[in-house]
């Protein structure tokens, strides 16, 4: 083998590894309940599917412009104005194959070797690896359970160096569900403006804010908008994870460079899928609102269940569809860390969860509650029983 140094720097996505492992066990006839990869358990709405089928039938099956079909860029710009209160022209929006690729493309166009990017931890698994793939250096900003895992400007400031080029913001957060309040976003934005730091704002879970409305950092002012990449996707909001459609909104010069990357790599996002996304935009948020109601009930149930287990603490997530309980009370004896605890839970309880260390925080586990209430009830019972055996 003769690999590049770059590929040797990165790890596979642990959320996907664990989910594949659970699927494999299930295929072998083992009754596994998966709280692994986070994706809504709802099917893509019919009106979205029908729009894509119509596009297929009408022959919309050819290459499109590299940045996506103009109608969708316009629709996303309109949504960003109406819902998020940020003014972008369609030329400041690019359609991407999911938020994951959107993030990778942003890192590709801004990072030079050695540039540092601040990544608050616990973080979603792909940020650090993508930054490394783009020759950058992820600088971890540790957050604590005591503060509800909420990033503040005061914490951030300590990690800024002359090499800091960017900050990854993810509110609501995967894996903690923490939401950064507007008052704090304003302080973070001021700090980034003062220190010349670009903001990469991953807003994939904006539709799932349970207590307060989502605030996009780019909506704070024109100056902040001009240093921000606003990233989002149809994946979670419209239960379209397999469709691979997301977007980046940013000043036009950045979008032009990202378009070059797309034109030389993917050519364009999938033609007929984009027509489905257009229909999703026309729904005006009714479908995600329905999911949110359901997720909220599940969140309340899961948090209560964890709090009823001796020794476990579990901050109540304000958004997204994950819980991130502290399981250090069960890491002792034969079980030396959270990875071993997740292996134990898989083998003993037949439940798949992701270890906190995959998100840069040992001693925790992450569960996605985007699965049926029946699964949640049965899975929580199994987790409880297996943990109590360790006492
Ligand atoms: N950002 C976060 C925080 C995520 O949890 C995910 C996982 N889906 C993504 C980005 C990637 O989203 P997509 O499936 O649209 O690529
Ligand atoms: N974002 C989801 C998760 O965190 C899907 C898996 C992935 O893309 O890594 O579980």
Major sheet: arrangement of strands: 2-8-7-6-5-3-4
Q: Globular, elongated, flat, extended or rod-shaped: what is the shape?
A: globular
Mean pLDDT: 96
* Major sheet details: 7 strands, mixed
User: Termini distance?
Assistant: 47 Å
CATH superfamily of the largest domain: Type I PLP-dependent aspartate aminotransferase-like (Major domain)
Low-confidence stretches: none
What is the total domain count? 2
CATH level 3 topology of the largest domain: Aspartate Aminotransferase, domain 2
Topology order in helix (H) and strand (E) letters? HHEHHEHEHEHEHEHEHEHHHEHEEEH
Q: What is the CA-based Rg, rounded?
A: 21 Å
Number of strands: 12
- Percent range for helical residues? 40-55%
Give the amount of beta strand, in percent: 5-15%
CATH architecture of the largest domain: 3-Layer(aba) Sandwich
- Quick one: CATH class of the largest domain? Alpha Beta
Structural class of the secondary elements? alpha/beta
Count of helices? 15
């Amino acid at each position: 083998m003769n690999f590049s140094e770059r590929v040797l720097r990165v790890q596979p996505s642990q959320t996907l590894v664990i989910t594949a492992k659970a699927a494999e066990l299930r295929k072998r006839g083992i009754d596994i309940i998966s709280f692994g990869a986070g994706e809504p358990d709802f099917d893509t709405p019919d009106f979205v599917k029908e729009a894509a089928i119509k596009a297929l039938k009408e022959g919309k099956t050819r290459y499109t412009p590299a940045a996506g079909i103009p109608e969708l860029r316009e629709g996303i710009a309109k949504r960003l104005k109406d819902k998020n209160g940020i003014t972008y022209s369609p030329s400041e929006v690019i359609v991407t194959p999911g938020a994951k690729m959107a993030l990778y493309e942003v890192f590709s166009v801004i990072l030079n070797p050695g540039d540092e990017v601040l990544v608050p931890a616990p973080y979603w698994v792909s940020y650090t690896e993508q930054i490394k793939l783009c020759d950058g250096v992820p600088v971890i900003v540790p957050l604590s359970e005591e503060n509800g895992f909420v990033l503040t400007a005061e914490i951030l400031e300590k990690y800024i160096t002359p090499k800091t080029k960017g900050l990854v913001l993810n509110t609501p957060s995967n894996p903690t569900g923490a939401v950064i309040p507007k008052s704090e976003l304003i302080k973070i934005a001021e700090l980034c403006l003062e220190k010349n730091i670009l903001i990469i704002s991953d807003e994939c879970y904006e539709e799932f804010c349970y207590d307060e409305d989502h605030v996009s950092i780019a909506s704070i002012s024109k100056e902040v908008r001009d240093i921000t990449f606003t990233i989002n996707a149809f994946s979670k909001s419209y239960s379209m994870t397999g469709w691979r459609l997301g977007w980046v909104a940013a000043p036009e010069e950045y979008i032009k460079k990202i378009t070059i990357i797309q034109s030389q790599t993917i050519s364009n996002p999938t033609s007929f899928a984009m027509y489905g996304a257009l229909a999703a935009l026309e729904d005006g948020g009714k479908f995600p609102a329905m999911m949110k109601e359901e997720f909220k009930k599940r969140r309340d149930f899961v948090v209560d269940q964890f709090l009823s287990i001796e020794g476990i603490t579990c901050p109540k997530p304000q958004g997204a569809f994950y819980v991130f309980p502290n399981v250090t009370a069960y890491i002792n004896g034969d079980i030396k860390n959270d990875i071993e605890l997740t292996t134990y839970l898989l083998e003993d309880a037949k439940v798949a969860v992701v270890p906190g260390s995959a998100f840069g925080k040992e001693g925790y586990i992450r569960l996605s509650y985007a699965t049926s209430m029946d699964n949640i009830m049965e899975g929580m019972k199994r987790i409880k029983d297996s943990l109590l055996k360790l006492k």
